[in-house]
Amino acid sequence: MPSSSEQRAKIAYTTITLLGLAYAFYRGYLFWLPSRLSGFDHWQVGDWLIDYSGGMVRRGLSGEFFFTLAPDGATAITFVVVMQVALAATVYVLAAVLYLRTDRGPVWMMLVLSPAFLLFPALDAAGNTRKEWLVLVALAIAALATRSARPALGLWLALPLFTVGVLFHEALIVLLPAFVYLAFVSLPRERARVLLGAYVVPVVISVGIALLRPGSSEVAAEICANWRARGIEDCGGALAAIGMPATEMVDKLVNESFPGYWAYLLPAALAALPFFALRFFPRERLIGLLVVAAVAPLFILGWDYGRWVFLIVAQLSFIALALPERSRPMRVPLYGALAFILLWGFNHAGPALTDGLAVRWLSSVLS
Hints:
The model has no long low-confidence stretch (mean pLDDT 96). The chain is globular and about 65 Å long. Helix 6 (106-112) runs parallel beside helix 20, helix 10 runs antiparallel to helix 11 (189-212) and helix 17 (285-295) runs antiparallel to helix 19. It starts with a helix and ends with a helix. Strand 1 and strand 2 (353-354) form a beta hairpin. With 367 residues, the protein is an all-alpha fold. It is built from 21 helices and two strands.
């Protein structure tokens, strides 16, 4: 039985972690809610409102959905923003429940409050409401069900959200390895194969649409005209990117972002520390390599390197939280865990590095 000092320490760790999660959600989402409801972010909201007014195009299903709910542009923006906050809240709540089912030591605190995981949205709110949160909700559901010894139920419940996510944005197929891993480590092989087949179907459809209907400047112009008819004047950001050929996107990445983007290697290395402290690595190196390999093409085709790092870390974090008995955490002092959480950060896109929470708080006090 734990001693009274151990019990007090665990209460302290738990309190700090839950307060940290609440703060991260507030700073990343609730703090910005009024401005997001009254404005229009052509990346974070615009990506959700790309529709089929110029013909079927990748990522257009989400716009069809929201404009069916609300033909008026301002109302559609409100629906998008409310859904974004609801998705993020669901992920934070489910992650908190999963955390409470670990031994709640400092290493688990490092994992869930990592600047590359659930602290990331608070450090860079400019990239925290993209479509990946749909699939992260699905993954969190699957992880919690796996932790509750009901993996099949969780993976089947997660499938509709996963399907919607990958049909809304083809890049989200890179999150497939986490679902496959949970299926094969927690279910008989035959049942896991059935689930794999079910998850592959929307992936194939999404890839097919992206290859056959990638978009063009003409399609983007027609969608823009539809937006303006609905009261949305800003046709930049995600909509403009739909009209940009892949070769041009790669050229823009190479010519405008490098060599500065090499700095993302530092947060990527720091993000791995909790997994080594949990002894998740090197034991689970196979899933680590599969997740990195799946996300790797995004580092060639996309500009948001910070988001890609986040997607890698989020997948591995939910796997670790789903199967905590497979981890034997190292002993890390509380001050070490807090230093890891507070002293560094990175952006979803360049410039790569940003101040950690401690530096920001200190600056606000001294200013």
